Amino acid sequence: LEAVYGKNLTKVELKEQSTWAARMFCTPGTIGCYLSHRRFWEIVANNDKQQPSPAYQIVFEDDVLLPDNNFYKLVHQYVQELESHPDTRDSWDVLLLGALGSVNPNQNYGPYHIPAFFAGGRRKPRSNVTDHCHVPHRPFGTHAYVLHKRGAEKLLQLAWRATYHVDCVAWGIKELELYATDPLLAYEDGASPSTVGAVTSGIESWMIPSSVRMDSYTKMPLGWVWNEPVLRIPFVDVVITQGRYLVLGILGSMFGAFHFQTHQWLLPTNVLVYFGFMFAFTRTMSRPVER
User: Fold this and answer.
1) CA 226 to CA 124: how far, in whole Å?
2) Which of 20, 127, 166, 240 has a CA positioned 20 to 30 A from the CA of residue 49?
3) Are the beta carbons of 31 and 162 closer than 8 angstroms?
4) Buried b (16+ CB within 10 A) or exposed e, 15-31
5) Which residues contact 237 (CB under 8 A, 6 or more apart)?
6) pLDDT value of residue 50
7) pTM, whole model, 2 decimals?
8) How far is CA 7 from the centre of its chain?
9) pLDDT tens for each residue of 136-169
10) In sequence order, what are the residues at sequence separation of 6 or more whose Cβ sits closer than 8 angstroms to the Cβ of residue 240?
11) Dist. CA 107–CA 240, nearest whole Å
12) Helix axis angle, 28-46 to 149-158, nearest 10°
């Protein structure tokens, strides 16, 4: 599947296929990634109109890692578990083969609690729905998943227009019956920078050793996560990554604490503005928008 290169989109195409906020605050790569996945949703939703085929298909991003030699055999096995289980066979929409975020079935989420809180769209986790499939709390990542025709139709109906990171939007839709495999069968290549506009120089590249992981379950390097863009400042085209936003918050809090005796309002104001803005911004941008 040919991906959408965000920088090649015309102003008319951007206006037709993305929200005003996305055009203002997202990198071109973020919009292109969203529209690339939407192309896949359209193929799955319309596939039976072209030729007889399975009701579900798999998509991989170009930076996916498949460490198990029996990958396709296991995918078939896990999908059949959903297809044969009385509670899921007529209703499952998405099976995540790889994921980031709060997806550990033991509910040991570690620092992933933070993006789950800010993005919203959390689910009540259910372990052992089948032998190898469970309902994750708040997943992120679109590097490998199985999409059923039902799920594709829901995504196209509810989230047609690009708004933000596609995983923040799509996997937060409560109407989507979403599961994840345990163990995970696919992983994001943490050695390669994200293509949605990651910053590969500065504090993100020298502050965190590559051996430091978000958790042992997703195996995602903390530095890779810090590189992910949170927003693009319009007009000056400066990208604020997760890491840089965190550092700004820490520096602001330190400044407020240092001057607390003379300016007591500085610290609480900084904390309120910092967390308030990120909460409101992420929640607003992560809402799905119909056509």
Assistant:
1) 27
2) 166
3) yes
4) eebbbebbbebbbbbbb
5) none
6) 53
7) 0.92
8) 21
9) 999 999 999 999 999 999 999 999 999 999 999 9
10) 229, 230, 231, 232, 233, 248
11) 30
12) 130
